[in-house]
Amino acid sequence: MAKSDSFPIINIHIRDKDKKDINLQRDNDVEKNNKSQLSTSLQNQRDRGERDYIGFATLPEQVHRKSVKRGFDFTLMVVGESGLGKSTLINSLFLGDLYKGRKIPDAADRVEKTTTIEKKTMEIEERGVKLRLTIVDTPGFGDAINCEDSWRTCAAYIDEQFRQYFTDESGLNRRHMQDNRVHCCLYFVPPWAHSLRQVDLEMMKRLHRKVNIVVVIAKADSLTAAEVKRLKARILTDLEDYQIQVYQFPECDSDEDEDFKQQDRELKAAAPFAVVAADTVLEVGGKRVRGRQYPWGIVDVENPRHSDFTKLRTMLISTHMQDLKDVTQDVHYENFRAQCISQISQHAMRERGKLKRDSMGNNSDVVITDTDRLLLQKDEEIRRMQDMLTQMQEKLKASDKKHDSIIDV
Fold this sequence. Notes:
Elements: H1 2-5, H2 16-48, H3 59-70, E1 72-79, H4 86-94, E2 118-126, E3 129-137, H5 150-169, E4 184-189, H6 198-207, E5 213-217, H7 225-241, H8 258-270, E6 273-274, E7 281-284, E8 287-294, E9 297-300, H9 309-319, H10 321-362, H11 370-408
Parallel strand pairs: 1-3, 1-4, 4-5, 5-6
Antiparallel strand pairs: 2-3, 7-8, 8-9
């Protein structure tokens, strides 16, 4: 009996990562339990043969399975001058390293530096959901002495992706269309600027009707809390004065819970986001955090008192990624598509009129429809009015000459 009561005592230390894995497993178990209960309830209704059961309650599950199988695409453009931490922020947001072996140009190379497009693609999988992430970087933006044409490369790339999508959409095989349209543009403002600079305003004016712009204040740890607040207020004032439309958060539905509404209010109040990014993982108080170490202390990038990094990641990935894609499809792309269709229609009308005029001049046996007859009548009326105006102008000129000759006599 004494032997059976003596059990060894083992100290178990659970790391933060293990806790996250346990919570993740618990969430998955709850989700599976809910699905199992729903399937059981639907099966019971089928077995009972209830008259009010149709079966369309499984539509969300069908859409979910189809979407997960197909996967999702998201394209993010980052714009800002070198040294603002764009690469570090992207690596911190998506927990990857997209810029291995990248070389920073020296001062001599920046004299005649032009803006270029550098595209990187990576596939991320989380809980069985696949995301094809494309990062469009713009090295060279704002690095040259003359930056007046820095916006052209970015605007041309966005238009080219719209044009390619429009071509694929108008083609015969549309089953395997790839969406490379830019869904969001992170525009980095340097912390040493007192407000938006001229190059910032010019860039946003050219892009705000083509893409969703999210303004980011880079390296916010170089500013005090009061300075960050003043800079945010000045940026918002400049955006309103120059009528620049940045991404607007959608309003919450009335049936949302209070926690989601509070989160939405905090995200709206935080824009523009003052962020600090870091690739280094440090140990603080027994916990592993992602931050920057200075002689006076450590900046935790995920601490809301130090940075808006967590809010930016929540908005960009967790809560508003689909809305960014919807606004791109319903607003920016539709505007581009309407312009393309209008240009095509005008060109077709001109070609049609030219062919009709040529055929009528070369062939006298052409059959004239009622529409063509009305158009010919209108053209004839316009021609008569032009002749009348010409005659009236000649009469006025003749009367003026006669009046001048009488005065000279």
